[in-house]
Specification:
Pfam families: NOA36 (PF06524). It contains 5 helices and 11 strands. With 315 residues, the chain is an alpha+beta fold.
């Protein structure tokens, strides 16, 4: 029988599992739970915004600033402070040590926070994927898309996530061959089969899905997602037949049979009015020609009789 694990052995294995999970989740930090991205209400204008050193709307300083690294609002006497304050709990501006250039939030005067926050700030490259605004250009919080893991501002997060699971192709086929794409990259919006999902540049970790051969982002199985293809309401996809098939042939057939949109019907109406105008002009020209022919006949009859006064043109 195998030996029973001791308490120290169990603690060591649990610690290794926790370290392994923390290393795996280090790339995708939950930005919404970071102290530098926490919600703050201004003391002066009472407007909610991201944790900032100065209010985005009125530029006022808060009474109780929060550290962007550790999230504390009061510095205790037992901490590793750069500025020593023995026997006193410092709050407010007495606790502040610096302002982060990336997240625009206060950093306390603790030695660990001052030395590590600028290197590992989660908002260092947090530009919105939709509006391309940085943290300094808008007052809201920063979020990550749950599908493609790109940064989103507070204004565009719902609109982006509603349209994120749309492929940049019209079918679910692999971008490199004609087979069905079983793995989808939500950052590149493309599908790959089992053979073309293997990349020589990005290595696949054991127990994880293969990375995208184009950008290296972790792919997901297409059957587990609510993926949809790109569709357009014009061109060859505009006129589908009764079986759902679409193409240039069905498009021109539907256009010829009057199955187009209202704009096309209006165009047809304009063309009919234009044709009516042309017919009216043709009728006027025919009447003028008939009148000229009648005048020529009268001139010929007068010439036969011998009277030239009425038929000689006056120049």
């Amino acid at each position: 029988m195998p030996k029973k694990k001791t308490g120290a052995r169990k603690k060591a294995e649990n610690r290794k599992e926790r370290e392994k999970l923390s290393r795996a989740n280090r790339e995708h930090v939950d930005v919404a739970k970071q102290p530098c991205n926490s919600a703050m209400e201004c003391d002066k204008c009472q407007r909610r915004q991201k944790n900032r050193a100065f209010c985005y709307f009125c530029a006022s300083v808060q009474k109780l600033p929060m550290c962007a690294q550790c999230g504390k609002t009061k510095c205790m006497k037992s901490s590793d402070c750069v500025i020593k304050h023995p026997g006193v709990h410092s709050t407010g501006m007495g606790m502040v040590g610096a302002v982060c250039d990336f997240c625009e939030a206060w950093v306390c005067h603790g030695r660990k926070c001052l030395s590590t926050h600028a290197c590992m700030c989660p908002l260092s490259d947090a530009d919105c994927i939709e509006c391309e605004r940085s943290v300094w250009e808008h007052g809201g919080r920063i979020f990550r898309c749950s599908f493609c893991h790109n940064f989103l501002c507070e204004d565009d997060q719902f609109e982006h996530q509603a349209s994120c699971q749309v492929l940049e192709a019209e079918t679910y086929k692999c971008v490199s061959c004609n087979r069905l794409g079983q793995h989808s990259c939500l950052r590149c919006k493309a599908c790959y089969c089992d053979d073309h999902a293997r990349s020589k540049v990005f290595k696949q970790e054991k127990g994880k899905a293969p990375p995208c051969p184009k950008c290296g982002h972790e792919t997901q199985e297409t059957k587990d997602l609510s993926m949809s293809t790109r569709t357009v309401k014009f061109g060859r996809q505009g006129g589908a037949d009764e079986y759902g098939a679409s193409g240039y042939d069905s498009y021109w057939k539907s256009s010829a049979s009057g199955g187009g949109d209202q704009d096309e019907e209006e165009d047809y109406g304009d063309e009919e009015e234009y044709d009516d105008d042309e017919d009216y002009e043709d009728d006027e020209e025919d009447e003028e020609e008939e009148e000229e022919d009648g005048e020529e006949d009268t001139c010929a009859s007068e010439l036969k009789r011998g009277s030239f006064a009425e038929c000689v043109p006056v120049w």
